Amino acid sequence: MIEVQHISKQFGDKFALNDVSFTLNKGEIVALIGENGAGKSTLMRILCGYIAPTSGCVSILKHNVETERIQALKYIGYVPEISSLYLDMLVFDFLKWIAHLWNISNVNETILNVANKMQITEVLSNKIESLSKGFKKRVEIASALLHQPKILILDEPTDGLDPNQKDHIRQFIKTYAKDNLVLISTHVLEDTSIANRALMLAAGKVIYDASMNDFKKISHSKNLTEAFQILTSSAKGKK
């Protein structure tokens, strides 16, 4: 569903990404992990067409993101870490506006459907600025689901959620990925427990790409944090 071929991204004389290649497939939950500055945000912005790579290319369901931008990006739902909400709007009006941008015909039915999935029906008539951080996050995810994307890209999907809400979002991701692709980027390693694949960056390069089970086995105790620390230390040692 996503094919990344030898992409690099330079900002001045610094490489944020350096010759990165991988393929992501339907039915996968992929955890994009790495230390701050590893290149995760840059990679997600390139996948979503916000910025162009310095070299290399990205294809979404066989459509090149640069040369077939509209065809490629219609398959993606993206929730960035930094809020993209308009705080002075009502939740329902915001979702309605997004639905119109996607030319969705059955707007009310679609909004109620995603609102139920994200458990936000009780705040549809509320102003976004009045919501808790957890509700705002779920409104953002709901807005990304309106056009039923085949690829869902979530940056810190459980940020600001309470334990019950986190569990709900994780269960939703597992269900959604059965027929689609979900890419999550997070520093909360507990979130990666639902993934079936780990894709790890360090200094703009892919240093690990394998199953989550194999990632856990890097640690003798199968501890996610320890496995992360072992890989990041190893990458620093190779510099």
Commentary on this structure:
The chain is of the alpha/beta class and 239 residues long. It has two domains: 2-75 and 150-237, P-loop containing nucleotide triphosphate hydrolases (Rossmann fold, 3-Layer(aba) Sandwich); 83-148, no CATH class. It has helices at residues 40-47, 69-73, 91-101, 107-118, 133-145, 163-176, 212-217, 224-237; strands spanning 2-11, 14-24, 29-33, 55-60, 63-64, 76-79, 151-155, 181-185, 197-202, 205-211. A six-stranded mixed β-sheet has the order 6-7-8-3-9-10, sandwiched between helices. It has a four-stranded antiparallel β-sheet with strand order 2-1-4-5. The longest helix has 14 residues, at 163-176. The chain is globular, with a radius of gyration of 18 Å. The two termini are 32 Å apart.
Task: Itemize the secondary structure elements and their pairings.
Layout: E1 2-11, E2 14-24, E3 29-33, H1 40-47, E4 55-60, E5 63-64, H2 69-73, E6 76-79, H3 91-101, H4 107-118, H5 133-145, E7 151-155, H6 163-176, E8 181-185, E9 197-202, E10 205-211, H7 212-217, H8 224-237
Parallel strand pairs: 3-8, 3-9, 6-7, 7-8
Antiparallel strand pairs: 1-2, 1-4, 4-5, 9-10
